[in-house]
Amino acid sequence: MKATAFTVENIPLIKPGDDIGRLIIERAELEEHDIIIISSTIVSKSENRILSLGKVKVSRRAEAIAKRNDNDPRFIQSVLDMSSEVLIESPFLLVRINNGSICVNAGIDRSNVSGSENVLLLPEFPDESAKRIKDTVFELTGKNVSVIITDTNGRAFRMGQTGAAIGISGILPTRDWRGTEDLFGRVLEVKNEAIVDELAGFANILMGEGNGGTPAAIIRGLDLYHESSGINELFRPEKEDVIRRALISR
Ligand code: GDP
Ligand code: MN
Ligand code: MN
Questions:
Q1: CATH superfamily of this structure's domain 50-121
Q2: CA 20 to 30 Å from 4, out of 116, 195, 234, 243?
Q3: How far apart are CA 191 and CA 180, in angstroms?
């Protein structure tokens, strides 16, 4: 196996209304079945998902959590506003957001956003954002590509953060090995590889977390193109999610 990966250079600071698909195809010679990985930060900026903390109305609950967690009550309120369920309240907020994903602080970011009072919400419908970018690339180049929108997430049980896929188009979220054989003829029963997270993790190494200004990367040579699907398959069904159950039953 051989694959190549590179960042898309010279992407400007993204403003509301910018067309991410077009900005990428103007800066990279795309090939059929390339995988384009894009940080959610620039997708959010293009979709004007910027929130000014000055406009947030703080509830009693947010006030209390903010005091306990030593955080800005307006930030806590904006996390609660984006959440459908709170799994951990302190020392940080772990919540389920409206699209079903479970993440710390509802994925709201304060880094790489201009204005000290501004925070950046995740794209509202990340699969749709990915599909829109995929469709733009097809319209402008005739090439079928996979698109993965990523965010940097912490993990349970392990230190450090990695890239994770939050919205996809033109690729299946997993590669299912179940029913295939290992080297010794034993049938695999569990392995369903979360390939979009693996790709997001690798692309995140190229994109970085700081002032690199490289919010998009291309991975070429892995033929993983597939008609659209969505990220939901990666969210553990409630009845199987023993960790969630343990957290909310405390
Ligand atoms: P996240 O992981 O999606 O939350 O995004 P990060 O804040 O970690 O940023 C990922 C990469 O994108 C870093 O290299 C940033 O410097 C870069 N980045 C963030 N916003 C912009 C932007 O508006 N324009 C450009 N060119 N790069 C950006
Ligand atoms: Mn982020
Ligand atoms: Mn990041």
A1: CofE-like domain (3.90.1660.10)
A2: 234
A3: 10
